[in-house]
What we know:
Elements: E1 2-3, E2 24-33, H1 36-42, E3 53-54, E4 59-62, E5 68-71, E6 74-76, E7 96-97, E8 109-113, E9 118-119, H2 126-129, H3 135-145, E10 151-155, H4 159-170, E11 174-179, H5 184-192, E12 197-200, E13 209-214, H6 221-227, E14 229-237, E15 258-261, H7 267-276, E16 286-290, H8 294-303, E17 309-313
Parallel strand pairs: 10-11, 10-13, 11-12, 13-14, 14-15, 16-17
Antiparallel strand pairs: 1-3, 2-4, 2-8, 2-17, 4-5, 5-9, 6-7
Helix pairs in contact: 3-4, 3-7
Amino acid sequence: xxxxxxxxxxxxxxxxxxxxxxxxxxxxxxxxxxxxxxxxxxxxxxxxxxxxxxxxxxxxxxxxxxxxxxxxxxxxxxxxxxxxxxxxxxxxxxxxxxxxxxxxxxxxxxxxxxxxxxxxxxxxxxxxxxxxxxxxxxxxxxxxxxxxxxxxxxxxxxxxxxxxxxxxxxxxxxxxxxxxxxxxxxxxxxxxxxxxxxxxxxxxxxxxxxxxxxxxxxxxxxxxxxxxxxxxxxxxxxxxxxxxxxxxxxxxxxxxxxxxxxxxxxxxxxxxxxxxxxxxxxxxxxxxxxxxxxxxxxxxxxxxxxxxxxxxxxxxxxxx
Length: 320
């Protein structure tokens, strides 16, 4: 499925099997998760995508030697800049990203730099492993950067939040989930996964939060989260794109509260989370769709009609 122009539906195309260059590995795609970042790319909210482009950066694939590997968002970094040399390859100015500046996994075959592929843990079928590769990895990085406070708010209870809630509960945190107003199904889903309170993003929780992670790309949630944040707490914006943050009074920030973003991920993040996920164990809630329904999957994500994660599967692949 190919994005030929931003703002246009994906088009089904027959393209040659990609030829791996030195250092790359060719993978038969077994499953590919659908991420909100895919929407941002397709809608033109992220600048200068490779066009034509194969979207998708939560790619589970099989190499010719039978290894099952994951292709995540970070597809390449130069290894030489000051960010890479200080353990911050996620900030590399020359980085290339799967499904954005590199072709991704909305396809039957994909190539990737083998150094940036991740070994996937046993115990997760192909479809259930796919959301770990971005919803899980970015969610986990955001969770770690939120600090170790007991009371954690999750704004937007979608693919990432439903994984982070499980990690947080396993660590003994108390989870407070915020959804779109009126989304009683989403609030019930959050409670099923361990949230002790779930309500609308327009509501205040029953007590202050020590940290809040914003998965919904709505800038107005920044001051909303600050209003219910305890002194010394942190608001983490976990998305790659967000609408403009409205002006807010300094008193919301005062008291050593902080606001920070999360940018991309490192391979170390990936290894750490994928080692942890089976120990919890994380259970991804997925709905499998055929690859040909990629446009429908993106539209459902846009309108919020998703419980957990959507995963695309090529017809020739098994969801085992």
